[in-house]
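lol forgot to send this yesterday, sorry. struct tokens for the thing we talked abt
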């Protein structure tokens, strides 16, 4: 049995970032965004005209989940799902199920308008608030803890593939600070997106390959060419040209770059030995399916999940261990893993900031694996 420290080869490690990774940079979590919407739609509040519509959408989501046997905390309810439902409703006659709908719910017509015009207006308000007030931050010094990602890549001595479900620019801004360049996001010198750049076709060395699975606040679709590009000024990206998706809707079935980016997550997660997941709440069934398939593909694969799960310093060691065990089982069930494989999930009870600053090191990663299981191939 090999008792030496774990040595990772190229692409043995991939990283998945969720909304929790950016909370310490003062970017609100999805649940916080929902709370702000609910405050804004109250009577006499700024968005009070959308209150009945929001209440209908929220009630409908919980109603559907209840039919499936999911209640309370089991329901995945977040900003992405709200906007996704509004987006689907806004399609109306363009939706493939439209010919099979005999009549819309009368209450829906009442709150959305006869032409569903209030649906589009409400969605636009949310997306605009998300892009300009919630995701864009004025001082990226608050995101300096992301430097840990680049230090970890330096320790690996290989390019690191980072997949992000976030729309923010934390990784990009810190990359410009520590490496004086953007990470590889798939844009050529003319700022046009080319998937081939993720294969390193131009021969340039890369530190970070960054896959923005749901888009980015600086991405836009050129109205003249229909091609994806990006802008240095996020405020100048028109709402109708923004390249953002919410959840994993029908768009992922055939639209690039999103189809390609999700395929890349599947591709690299299948062969990786370590899946490092930071700040993701496992509320996306599509992403969970990819991660679950990856874990079942290799018996030596490990999933490390970084998220605060205990009650903090006031918790006893036993309570902390119980919290980690409960989270491990919950995640294992979410990913469709068998109970005997739950041991391949490691829970790091930490905020993203604390983990990036002090926990993300090769030797620390090695400690997460039992000594008798340190059988990774030696670097060639």
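and heres what i got for the seq, position by position
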């Amino acid at each position: 049995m090999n008792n030496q420290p774990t040595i990772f080869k190229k692409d043995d490690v991939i990283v998945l970032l969720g909304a929790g990774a950016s909370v310490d940079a003062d970017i609100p979590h999805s649940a916080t965004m929902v709370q702000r919407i609910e405050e804004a739609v109250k009577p006499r509040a700024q968005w009070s005209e959308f209150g009945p519509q929001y209440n209908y959408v929220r009630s409908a989501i919980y109603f559907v989940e209840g039919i499936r046997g999911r209640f309370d905390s089991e329901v995945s309810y977040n900003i992405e799902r709200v906007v996704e439902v509004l987006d689907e409703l806004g399609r109306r006659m363009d939706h493939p199920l439209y010919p099979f709908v005999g009549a819309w719910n009368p209450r829906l017509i009442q709150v959305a308008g006869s032409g569903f015009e209030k649906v589009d207006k409400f969605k636009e308000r949310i997306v605009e608030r998300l892009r300009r007030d919630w995701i864009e931050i004025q001082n990226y010094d608050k995101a300096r803890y992301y430097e840990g990602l680049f230090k970890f890549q330096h320790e690996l001595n290989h390019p690191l593939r980072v997949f992000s479900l976030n729309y923010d620019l934390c990784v990009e801004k810190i990359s410009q600070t520590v490496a004086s360049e953007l990470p590889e996001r798939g844009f050529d010198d003319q700022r046009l997106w080319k998937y081939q750049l993720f294969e390193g076709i131009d021969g340039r060395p890369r530190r970070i390959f960054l896959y923005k699975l749901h888009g980015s606040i600086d991405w836009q679709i050129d109205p003249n060419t229909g091609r994806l590009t990006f802008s240095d000024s996020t405020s100048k990206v028109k709402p109708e040209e923004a390249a953002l998706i919410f959840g994993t809707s029908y768009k992922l079935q055939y639209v690039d770059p999103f189809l390609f980016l999700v395929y890349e997550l599947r591709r690299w997660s299948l062969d990786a030995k370590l899946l490092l997941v930071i700040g993701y709440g496992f509320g996306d069934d599509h992403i969970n399916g990819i991660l679950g398939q990856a874990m079942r593909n290799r018996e030596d694969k490990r999933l490390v999940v970084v998220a605060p799960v205990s009650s903090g310093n006031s918790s006893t060691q036993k309570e902390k261990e119980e919290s980690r065990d409960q989270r491990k089982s919950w995640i294992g069930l979410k990913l469709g893993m068998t109970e005997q494989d739950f041991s391949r999930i490691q829970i790091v009870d930490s905020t993203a900031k604390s983990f990036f600053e002090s926990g993300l090191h090769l030797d620390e990663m090695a400690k997460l694996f039992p000594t008798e299981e340190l059988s990774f191939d030696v670097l060639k």
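The two ends are 19 Å apart (CA to CA). anyway ping me if u want another try
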